[in-house]
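User: I'll paste a sequence; please echo it back and then give the predicted structure.

Assistant: Echoing your sequence first, then the prediction.
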Amino acid sequence: MRAVVQRVRSASVTVEDEVTGSVDAGVLVLLGVTHEDGEADALWLARKIAGLRIFPDDGGKMNLGLAEMGGGALVVSQFTLYANTRKGRRPSFVPAAHPTLAEPLYERFCELLRDQGIARVEQGVFGAHMDVRLLNDGPVTLILDSP
């Protein structure tokens, strides 16, 4: 699994003029799934994201995790994270998992993130065309790949 994690002051996702998920301070997680991914990858990534010390403590040092600071997570599926752009000008999405594998793992990842103590986990709509808005905080942006 691959995630682009952005620390945000706020983020929201809209599908067909309806807000389907939003968070205030926390993270926006763009999540991609590849063919080899499974439950262990989702668990590893959920634990990693929940515990990343990317939020400032009282001294302004990045020392707090998402659960510690009480933030939320907006998780948006994004198969384009596995685009292969090495040849030509049109990306190949062959490395991305088929929706029959990707959607259940996306849903499971969100459940596992909640299990890590993240009280507010909001979601986009899997497979939909989404408008994603965010107010990036920092900016702090990390790219994570499961082992």
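The helical segments are 39-51, 66-69, 99-115. The mean pLDDT is 96.
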